[in-house]
Design goal:
single chain; six-stranded antiparallel beta sheet
């Protein structure tokens, strides 16, 4: 009977699909696991139990689903935003933002509960941040800007850009003229009933009629006061009389002489625009924003050359927003608009002189033979855009020249299709979710291909994404994990480090009855220098549905923490003070059995009474109390070697097992979940009246199992203490077949 001692020393290939249980030939097989529940994968290889979720507050209306988003001014001023039915609330410094204390800071929004989410449970809001300004876009609402006006106050206002963007110029027979070149409350009159309610608040572009009646400027001509002259499409008014000089007017603002006696005031570049304030079928009231040409004023100057704003309630508002090359980028359908460089509220396609230059606004259409809506925008080396069918890159046509209206290249990159979910980015690579929600692809620029290539990062764990991912965010520190939420409410993590070629999936069961995570977002921790995961968790508590905002605590470390500070319960809270037996403040867990760590030692479970209290066996100074969670890791079937080929399918017996731990003081191990033996961590030298200190090193377990062809190993920690598994070292006897 051959003996073998395989070493299982890494788990960062993640929880493998059941379809791979026979793939012992696969290079990642030894570093994978059959089960990873509530264990995070580290880039280095070990599996570390995730910390617990700390309760912060209930959402405003616990019957309604909400969505979390990050607002990070800098690492010291970061907020989590809770978007719900017609409101947004704020969290920072591990608490809900309140001003005055007890009163949540809240801003009214137009977003109803029904409008927040798509039918596949992904969120319809799109967010882009610039300093204190958060641009909030939704296809059914006029864009908004959420502005932080102080550390405790925010305002939400309509985002109404100047200069466009506009639709294509009218090609029909309808004409429009204005009642004046400037002013507020002017009248726009059309030859048809084109002014409908959805145009109110938006811009209308009006150009001079094609047969321009303004005379061209010429040198040496006599002009009178207020005479108009044209240079190209630019129109100037004489504010002094006399003979014109030799310097052709070129200015686009103010008044300048032409080199002689006549001073010319710039009027317009041949077009202007006004913001519509009221409509009445064939007429509208408007405020002039950019002076309208005189050749479009009065019934005798009715022009065919006009256009409505591209963003409105009739054709729709932009559904996506991002920043790229110092421009604000918006998208709707298969159309992309980019603002003027460094002027996010300016979408002028031409400068003040009517010229198209490199830093002017850009308007482009993605074309791939099909009309598929853009699902996301992501700035990278290029601006990447995902539609329901394809992926595109948008960048410069000519290298070395700035991105501009005449230097734009749109290139079709791949044909996978995307879900309406903003990708996450690490370095130069991004992860996006395919249309069905079950596959996650890593997209990165390939210098050899001179384009973007995508790899399926769920191919080895296709089961992990369930019925589809609906939310995700990235925590770079300390373990480089993309945290995702599935439609059924499961929290899953993807440890991802392209530099080290590490990627692996792990699942997390949240404590509580019918517990489901509905949204996640990450921000820098205000105290520990890591990225903090925040979540909205739905549970059944005391027979009713509740939704709580919670955040994941920091990994426990003996270097940084006392043992009593270990936080490995969900929806938990901490008591710290004089020794006490009655612990209050657990009102959010009334009727629940809670797991307890009292002064660093596990305490028998207690049920929270109607007053939100539990009673301990003896007084404790530091108490962690919350819903219990269990962490489980089970490596793949053992491939222990054999004198006659593989050991797979052959009876084998594990005689001993060594588990190498790091800072661990509890757990059980065995061949199955029904046959687990407690591992003894307390040493004879440890005082009996003190907590078992965290153990680093090897624990040898005499294995009592029957011969089996499986070779299963399972480790479970169901106590509120940290656990890190560095490796499994079994001794195995394999029975050779005849």
């Amino acid at each position: 009977m051959p003996k073998a001692a395989p070493a299982l020393t890494a788990f960062n290939s993640g929880e493998f699909s059941p379809l791979l249980e026979a793939r012992i030939d696969f290079a990642k097989y030894p570093a994978a696991a059959r089960t990873l529940d509530n264990f995070k994968l580290t880039v280095q290889g070990p599996a570390r139990q995730r910390p617990g979720l700390r309760f912060v507050a209930a959402v405003k209306n616990e019957a309604n689903r909400t969505w979390l988003v990050r607002f990070e001014y800098n690492v010291d001023n970061a907020y989590i935003l809770e978007f719900g039915d017609l409101y947004v609330r704020f969290y920072t410094q591990h608490g809900r933002l309140e001003s005055p204390p007890g009163t949540p800071v809240e801003v009214v929004t137009p977003y109803t509960q029904a409008s927040l989410f798509n039918s596949d449970d992904t969120c319809r809001l799109r967010i882009a941040q610039s300093g204190d300004f958060l641009y909030v876009f939704h296809s059914d609402y006029e864009p908004r800007i959420l502005q932080r006006t102080s550390s405790t106050s925010f305002t939400l206002t309509e985002f109404r850009p100047d200069g466009g963007p506009f639709q294509d110029l009218n090609t029909g027979a309808t004409t429009v003229y204005a009642s004046a070149v400037s002013g507020t409350g002017i009248t726009l009159t059309a030859s048809a009933s084109i002014f409908v309610a959805g145009r109110v608040g938006t811009l209308m572009l009006i150009e001079a009629k094609a047969t321009n009646t303004v005379k061209a400027w010429e040198p040496g001509k006599t002009v009178a006061l207020n005479d108009l002259r044209r240079v190209g499409n630019r129109v100037y008014k004489a504010i002094s009389a006399g003979d014109t000089g030799t310097a052709t007017p070129v200015h686009t603002e103010g008044a300048l002489p032409d080199g002689d006696a006549v001073t010319w005031e710039f009027q317009d570049p041949g077009y202007g625009w006004a913001r519509i304030t009221a409509v009445a079928g064939a007429t509208a009231t408007a405020d002039v924003v950019k002076q309208i040409p005189s050749d479009a004023v009065g019934s005798g100057n009715a022009t065919l050359r006009w256009a409505f704003s591209a963003w409105n309630s009739v054709e729709g508002w932009p559904s996506d927003v991002a920043f790229f090359r110092e421009r604000l980028v918006a998208a709707r359908g298969n159309k992309v608009w980019m603002s003027v460089v460094d002027a996010f509220d300016d979408f002028s396609a031409r400068n003040d002189g009517g010229e198209v230059v490199a830093d002017q606004a850009i308007s482009k259409t993605l074309s791939s033979g099909e009309f598929n809506d853009i699902q996301w925008l992501m700035p990278a080396r290029d601006l990447l855009a995902g539609t329901a069918r394809s992926e595109f890159s948008i960048g410069e046509l000519a290298n070395g020249e700035p991105l501009g209206p005449n230097n734009v290249r749109i290139r079709h990159q791949s044909r996978y299709g995307s879900r309406s979910l903003v990708p996450v980015q690490a370095g130069t690579a991004i992860l996006f979710v395919q249309r069905a929600g079950r596959k996650v692809r890593e997209m990165a620029f390939d210098a050899g291909e001179q384009g973007y290539v995508s790899s399926d990062r769920t191919a080895l764990s296709e089961h992990i994404t369930g019925t589809g991912i609906v939310d995700a965010d990235y925590a770079q520190e300390p373990d480089s994990i993309v945290w995702c939420v599935t439609a059924e409410g499961r929290l899953i993590g993807f440890t991802w480090n392209a530099e080290q070629n590490v990627w692996g999936w792990h699942g997390h069961t949240i404590g509580g009855t019918d517990a489901a995570v509905e949204s996640v977002a990450t921000i820098p921790s205000p105290t520990a220098g890591h990225d903090e995961l925040w979540a909205v968790v739905r549970r059944t508590i005391d027979g009713a549905t509740h939704r709580y905002v919670e955040f994941m605590e920091v990994d426990w470390s003996s270097i940084l923490h006392e043992q009593s500070e270990a936080f490995y319960v969900d929806s938990g809270l901490t008591y710290s003070g004089v020794p006490a037996t009655t612990i209050s403040g657990l009102d959010h867990l009334v009727g629940e059995s809670v797991s307890i760590l009292a002064d660093g030692s596990p305490h028998p479970a207690r049920t929270v009474n109607a007053s939100g209290e539990i009673t301990l066996q003896q007084a404790a100074s530091v108490v962690q109390a919350g819903l219990p969670m269990t962490a489980t890791i089970a490596p793949m079937r053992l491939e222990a070697g054999s004198a006659n080929g593989t050991s797979q399918g052959k009876p084998k017996k594990i005689t001993t097992l060594v588990i190498r731990f790091h800072e661990t003081s509890s757990g059980k191990a065995g061949p199955s979940s029904g046959r687990l033996d407690e591992i003894t961590f307390r040493r004879p030298s440890d005082p009996m009246d003190e907590p078992v200190p965290p153990f680093t090193g090897d624990k040898r377990i005499d294995w009592e199992s029957e011969d089996s062809s499986d070779g299963f190993i399972i480790y479970v920690n169901d106590k509120p203490l940290p656990a890190t598994v560095l490796g499994f070292f079994p001794s195995v006897n394999t029975e050779e077949s005849d």
